[in-house]
Design brief:
- By secondary structure, the chain is mainly alpha-helical.
- It folds into 2 domains: 60 residues; 68 residues.
- It contains 4 helices and no strands.
- It is flat, with a radius of gyration of 23 Å.
- The protein starts with a helix and ends with a helix.
- The model has no long low-confidence stretch (mean pLDDT 85).
Length: 128
């Protein structure tokens, strides 16, 4: 296989990796700059409260992120199950009614775990 043909066929995947790398790298650089600013302020003897840190751009820990991601994955699992049921009813494919719920189990179980983490984190945060 010619190298140029292989490069063209891999270009979309390489582009996705490049976009993810740029986004992650930009976030990391921003976080480093914020932490350097906080470090310099502490060296200068200033006190830093949480509101100042948030104003500088450091994100707060959001416990609802797990809950939202878990519910989205459960919705994806339900969509796979409905798709399997619909294909089975329309096309008469009995296999689709068994394959799609099996496929839906992966995002469904991961979603259940994330919902559990979100709810347990919320209870833990409320007790503090």
């Amino acid at each position: 296989m010619d190298f140029s043909v292989m490069l063209v066929s891999l270009a979309p995947f390489i582009m996705v990796l490049g976009i993810v790398w740029v986004a992650v790298n930009a976030g990391t650089q921003k976080r480093k700059a914020t932490l350097n600013t906080i470090e310099e302020a502490i060296r200068a003897g200033q006190t830093i409260d949480p509101d100042t840190v948030r104003a500088l751009g450091m994100p707060r820990k959001d416990r609802n992120g797990d809950l939202k991601a878990g519910l989205i994955l459960i919705a994806v699992a339900a969509a796979f199950m409905v798709l399997g049921w619909t294909v089975g009813m329309v096309e008469g494919e009995e296999e689709a009614m068994y394959i799609m719920p099996a496929l839906a189990s992966f995002p469904g179980f991961i979603g259940l775990v994330l919902v559990g983490f979100g709810l347990l984190g919320k209870k833990k945060q409320d007790s503090e």
